[in-house]
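Troubleshooting: if your tokenizer reports a length mismatch, compare your output against this known-good record of 275 residues.
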Amino acid sequence: MEPITFKQCFKGAWRDGFNALRNRPLLCLTVAVVLLVTSALSVSLKQLALNASQDGEPAIFRLRLALMSFGVVLANIVAFSVLAIHVARYTILGPDAARQSHWYGRDLWRYLWTSIQIFIGVAVVWFIGALCAAFALRSAGHGTSYAALGTFFVLLMCALLFVVIRISLIFPQIAAGRSKRWRAAWQDSHGHFWVMFGTTIATILPLIVAGVLMTILFGVVLHFMPAATTVVLGTLVLQTVLSIAWVAVSIGVSAWLYQRFADRLLTLDDAPDDV
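Known-good structure output:
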């Protein structure tokens, strides 16, 4: 564990995130093109699905649209993961190691599998929690108490956020090609939740503000010129640029937090992966 300050994390995340993009420009440009194409396809598929529901198209047609939408989402996840792994490698291992590493392979599948595990875990807990809350309120005669349900879901979301932040060190560990150890990631983040959460939010805050302002601006333009192809294309390009910047900075700060707090993760470097 290195004595790294918040200022070093903030500056390092922005510097290393964008330097990583310049480290392998062809890879990053390819990811950007994939994201741009999938964004355009997503908009088109949503419009087709809306028209199909209004026109009463056959169920098989709507099923095909759903499968295509799933394929688009899958392509997005893979593209984001490829870029995230590259940025983490650059920040943790250095530019030479990042440049020489393959964008595909075992680390990518481990990264994707870990993301799926966390997503399924969160979804299952959310579903079970919703069922239990609804059953408890109905049993108590408060089945329509939206305030109680809202409070429960806010608390559940905070609990899930706490868990996800606590195990988030496992992602840069995997990206660096090291052993996947859930317990070690949990132990290394013990007592550091607020530092990790606050540092991440503060680092990506400029991007959040820029994204909100640009979304409002393009929303106003689209309201007055909804059929303008250049405006729609500009919106998609802006969304792609912000997505790339988001990945670069957020993964950069994650890698810096990993360098700051990783301890047992490093001592178990050669241990077999947890499931």
